[in-house]
Structure formats: structure tokens, C-alpha cells
DNA sequence: CTGAAAGCGCTTACAG
DNA sequence: CTGAAAGCGCTTACAG
């Protein structure tokens, strides 16, 4: 079987206590014995049993990643991979392992958040893709488990979050359209089960207000972030408000849906209507016309979420961490 | 602290032994005591400590997912999410948790495969995205850890694999082009560090042979599956062999690169040249012209990998599992 | 049908 | 600087 601390102790002629201390870098071991033990451990190809250690220390050096909506109906989460890669990179430094939990909101048996985390004794968790109506939200508001949320504003003793500055980003996107001369600007927003939707609406309103453009309820519509959602909303909006010359979207997928709808209606983009998205997914640079959009630094969001979680686990105070965004100007919006 | 088996024993007035057996469904417990214990466990909101159990049973009910190349230079793994979603679904039934290991081949300290798995005592692992030259390959050939590979043919006492029938798929794609009247058919293949590349080349050759079309070395080129790779290969191939009227590709990304290159060279697709890809990634149905390609059922590949791993863990014999593919005909190839 | 005891591989007061 | 012992929360022969 696998070699244990006991085997090393026998070979070295010391107690397991000493082996444990030597290997864990405690100061109260003579250099001589430490060296001997280390050498033997290496020769025996010893690898500590993290399970056993976890049982006694009550720390597993493992964090959970709880992700909802990995598969939305008809589409995979468009930038989960970037967030995931960032998280892995952020965890690597401190050698935390990652357990992936995918929650399916349509499923019957949803394990409560605390149970989910406690079953594997994760030291903390990152939570992504949750809707505001998800029952986990209420649990997380009162949890004792170190948690970092992505794009959901909850802050308490153990819970922090990271996100872009959505108000500012939407403000910039809308202001850009205004600067191009647009006055009748539609906004196809995400569903109102996402915190970012409200923040983006606020930024949109702010830009109108600052430029003395009256806000009109009929220019704003909530939908589900998907391409089909954008397609349908665009048709309806343009049909009912033909004076609209530009549409801002809360996701690139919706913007691409609008692009298709415009094409099908015989409208040219950007000549007849300007389109701006949000996210800067890979597809947005590949389509024609290239999509003007807000780039979110998803890798960085994941990275910082991981770093922040580690710091909370170590006892630091949770915060809201803002990741910079950027307006990416391509060809889908133009001056009028 | 969390409630343990000991607490339940105390409340129920029985020994921990009995509690353990009652909760684990052993037959040798009276129905009466079992009911009592179950009720108390429920009331106390007991949740077993899987760490402690793992220490004694030497089973963690956890599997690893080892993925290389999660981020290739300049691009994220295009269908990892589908595979992942399939794996999670396949694991759900048997309640296995998933630990995600991303290996970065460029990194210095690559933990040996067995050590990676043993550190967390996973019961088995699924391996995806490995190159043939990866040192893990040799390790896996001799491992005792239940393992299922995706797209890498290794079979032994504990190791099985799942893949599409790449020979047959490439055969079908090439035959389709031949049926359209093409005789000078290029093949932009993946790098020769992937098993699938050899299999697809074999299928390509087979189709030519069957139709009495001589195979020409200069019509075949190996590259790295990426869009840039396709772009450059296409330019070179068409420049040196202007008689080519159709090009088959080992990935959609490369096919899309060729599409771009053709455009830049003033060639129309499919009028001047026919293009066929492999994978059927999401993008392929969205671009113009829609890409004719081979669809791989990635979700299913992931799902079956998980199911097969569970069966190997339970002692069944590893196999090669073939997941059906399908030729998806869109607009990028036409009759001449 | 039930319980006392040993043990999984570690860590950590405590004593020397 | 070192070791004996207790204990983390479970499971599992073994005995009754």
C-alpha cells in the first residue's frame, strides 16, 4: 500500500510525531533529523494523505465552485471557461483543489448550500451564475462558509463578491451611442432575476439623464440574455418604435440576435441601426459587422474571485472587488 | 460543531456501531432501531463526514477530471463545456463528486499522474485533451487507477477510452466531397501529437482509395487545430496546388480559418472551393456560409466517459466506447 | 440484533 | 529537541 508517516518513522528511527513536524516545517526539529526524514520521505516517494490530514485539521485545502446554468436551454454558458481558467490560476498559488458543483435549478432535489459545502468539507466556495430568485441566495446571506460570489452583491462577515462596474459600463456604452448622435436608443436588457440587469439599467438611465434625453419605458425591455431573446425583442421594439436608431444590449448573444433580426427585416447594421452588446464573447469579433461591445475581463474576474476567497479563508475581511471593463469599438455602431 | 454519529448514538441510546449500520442500510439492524435512528439523524440535520468515511473505506466517491489545454494559446477549448456537462450528468446518478485538475504542459512542476490522483484519493479519473507526447500517457499505460481517456486509445486492466469513430467519420466526409464531384481534395489535419489525426488521415486515404483517386502527400498538411493554423495552411496549399477544389479539415476552427483565407484571396466558398470541417462547434452554424462538418456528440462523449469510469471503479472490464457522429450538411461545400 | 474495540493516517497539546 | 498518547469521525471484524 501507499507509504505512510509510520513507515518513514520506522526507517528513520524516530516517532511519527517528529516525522509530522519535520515534514510540515515546524521549527522545533533539529536540522539533522529533518534532513534525514526528508530524504527518506523522498526515497520512499511519500505523499501525504490529505484525507487523513483533513480529518484532524478540519481543513481540506479544497474549495467548491458552484455554478448554475452551465447549460442554459439551447446554449452553453458563453464565458464560463474564461472564468474557470482564471479561478484555477488564482487557486494554484495556494494549492487549493477545486470541486465542481453544477446546480440545475429545474431539478427536484437541490442540496442546500451548506450541506453541499459540508459534505466534502470544502474550505470555501465560489458561486457563479445564480439567479436572484435562487434559494441559495438567502442561505448565502447568512452562511458561515467563506464564499465569493460573482456578479451578485452580497457582503457580510464571510461573503464577498467580485464584478465589473456594471452601472459605469452601461453608462459608457450608452454615452458612446449618444456621442454618435443617437437620441432614440433602445435597451434590450437581461432578465430581472440578475443583479447586473438593474445596474445596467441604472447606467443606461444615467447616460440619458446627463445628456438631457428623456427616459422612455417603452424603449426598455427585459429578456433572458440569449440570442433568441434578442431576436424577438428587437423585432418587437423596432416595430413599435420605428424611430429608434440604436439599441444597447445586456449581452452579446442578445446583440447578435438583434443583428440577425435586423438582417431579416432588411435593415443594414450599422447604416440603418446601431447595435452595441455587452461581454465581448469570442464570437463578437468574428461576425460581420464586428460587434461594438463592453469587454468584461472574465479571466480576471475568476482569478480575483479565487484570490479573494483564499484571503477570506485566511481570515481577511470580505470586500466587493471591481474588475475593470472596456468599451470595444468595432463596426456595429456608427455616427448619424 | 457539526453533529456526528456519536451525538446520534447518545440521543438514541445505542452504540455508534449500530448508528453506522442503521444509516448505511445494513440488514442486521431491527426495523425499530433503524427507524428511531433515522428520525433522530433527520431531526439533528446529520450529514455524514465523507472525509472520515473516506479515511477508513479508502474510497472517496470522488473522481478527477484531468484536462490539458483548457486554454490553448489564443483560444479556449471549444467544446470542453459540452464534455463537462456530459460528465457531470453521468456522475450524478452515482453521486460522485468531481475534482477538476487542469494541467499546463508549459509549466515546470507537473505532478505525476498517480500522485495527482493519490493526493486527493480520487477513486478514478477522466482524462481529456492530452497530447500523445505528454508524459502522463506513459504513466497511464501502467496505472492501477481506474481511468477513462477521451480520444486517446489506451486499453488495459484499469484503463478504457471513449471516442468517435474517427476513421469512419473522415471517410464519410471525404466520400461526401468525392460524391460532389471533387477529385483534388486537400486535407488540413490536426497536429501529429493527437491520436485522432492519424485516424482521420486513415479515413481520408480510405475514401480516396475506394474511389480510385491517387493519394498525394502534398495535399495533406498537419497543423494545430486552430483558426490561424487553418488560415496559413490554406493559403499555402492553394498557392502550391491551385488545382485543389475542396479541402477537408480536422477541426471547425481550422475550416473557419480557411474560410477567412479564401475570402482574403478573393475566392468564393463554396463556388470556388468547398470546405468541410470537423466537430460542429456552435460557431459553425452561425457563420456564412454555414459550415458542412462532422458533428461529434461531445455531451454524450462526456456522459459515457463518466458512466464507463463508474463501471470500471465497480470492477467491470474497461472497453473502447464509440460514440456515433453525423455528417452535417450546410452550405460550405457544393457539387462541381 | 447489538456493542466494545481497533484502526484508517494524520496532527497536536503535553510532558520530559 | 523528541515521543507517548489522544483524537478527528467514521467502518468493520469479532464476540456475544
Structure report:
Two copies of one chain form a homodimer. In chain A, the strands form four sheets. The first copy, chain A, has a six-stranded parallel beta sheet with strand order 4-1-5-6-7-13, covered by helices on one side. A four-stranded parallel beta sheet of chain A has the order 9-8-10-11, sandwiched between helices. In chain A, helix 5 packs parallel to helix 13. The first copy, chain A, has 13 helices and 14 strands. The first copy, chain A, has 336 residues and is of the alpha/beta class. Chain A has helices at 5-12, 16-23, 31-43, 50-57, 80-92, 113-119, 135-141, 166-179, 195-210, 227-240, 252-264, 283-286, 298-313; strands at 62-68, 71-72, 75-76, 97-103, 124-128, 147-150, 159-164, 185-189, 220-222, 246-249, 274-276, 293-296, 320-323, 325-328. Chain A folds into three domains: 5-48, 434 Repressor (Amino-terminal Domain); 62-165 and 298-325, Response regulator (Rossmann fold, 3-Layer(aba) Sandwich), CATH 3.40.50.2300; 166-296, Rossmann fold. The interface between A and B is large, with 40 and 40 residues. The structure holds a DNA duplex (16 and 16 nucleotides).
Report the β-strand fraction of chain A as a percent range.
15-25%
Q: How many individual helices of chain A?
A: 13
CATH architecture descriptor name of the largest domain in chain A: 3-Layer(aba) Sandwich
Q: What coarse outline of chain A follows from CA principal-axis ratios?
A: elongated
Q: Pair with the most extensive interface? A: A-B, 40 and 40 residues
Q: Structural class per helix/strand content of chain A?
A: alpha/beta
Distance between the termini of chain A: 75 Å
Amino acid at each position: 500500500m501507499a507509504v505512510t508517516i509510520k513507515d518513514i518513522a520506522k526507517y528513520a528511527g524516530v516517532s511519527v510525531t517528529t516525522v509530522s513536524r519535520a515534514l510540515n516545517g515546524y521549527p522545533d526539529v533539529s536540522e539533522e533529523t529533518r534532513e534525514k526524514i526528508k530524504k527518506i520521505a523522498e526515497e520512499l516517494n511519500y505523499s501525504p494523505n490529505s484525507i487523513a490530514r483533513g480529518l484532524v485539521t478540519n481543513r481540506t485545502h479544497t474549495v467548491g465552485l458552484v455554478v448554475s446554468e452551465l447549460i442554459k436551454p439551447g446554449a452553453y454558458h458563453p464565458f464560463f471557461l474564461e472564468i474557470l481558467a482564471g479561478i484555477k490560476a488564482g487557486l494554484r498559488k495556494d494549492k487549493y483543489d477545486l470541486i465542481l458543483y453544477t446546480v440545475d435549478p429545474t431539478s427536484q432535489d437541490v442540496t442546500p448550500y451548506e450541506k453541499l459545502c459540508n459534505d466534502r468539507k470544502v474550505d470555501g466556495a465560489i458561486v457563479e451564475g445564480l439567479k436572484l430568485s435562487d434559494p441559495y441566495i438567502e442561505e448565502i446571506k447568512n452562511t458561515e462558509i467563506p464564499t465569493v460570489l460573482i456578479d451578485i452583491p452580497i457582503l457580510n462577515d464571510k461573503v464577498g463578491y467580485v464584478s465589473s462596474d456594471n452601472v459605469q459600463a452601461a453608462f459608457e456604452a450608452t454615452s458612446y451611442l449618444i456621442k454618435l448622435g443617437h437620441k432614440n436608443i433602445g435597451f434590450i436588457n437581461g432578465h430581472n432575476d440578475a443583479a447586473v440587469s438593474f445596474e445596467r439599467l441604472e447606467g443606461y438611465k444615467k447616460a440619458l439623464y446627463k445628456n438631457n434625453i428623456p427616459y422612455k419605458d417603452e424603449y426598455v425591455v427585459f429578456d433572458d440574455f440569449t440570442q433568441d431573446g434578442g431576436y424577438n425583442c428587437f423585432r418587437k421594439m423596432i416595430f413599435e418604435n420605428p424611430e429608434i436608431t440604436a439599441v444597447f444590449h445586456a449581452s452579446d448573444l442578445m446583440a447578435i440576435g438583434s443583428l440577425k433580426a435586423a438582417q431579416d427585416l432588411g435593415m443594414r447594421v450599422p447604416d440603418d441601426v446601431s447595435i452595441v452588446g455587452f461581454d465581448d464573447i469570442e464570437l463578437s469579433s468574428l461576425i460581420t459587422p464586428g460587434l461594438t461591445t463592453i469587454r468584461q475581463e472574465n479571466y480576471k474576474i475568476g482569478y480575483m474571485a479565487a484570490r479573494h476567497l483564499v484571503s477570506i479563508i485566511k481570515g481577511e475581511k470580505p470586500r466587493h472587488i471591481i474588475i475593470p471593463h472596456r468599451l470595444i469599438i468595432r463596426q456595429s455602431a456608427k455616427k448619424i
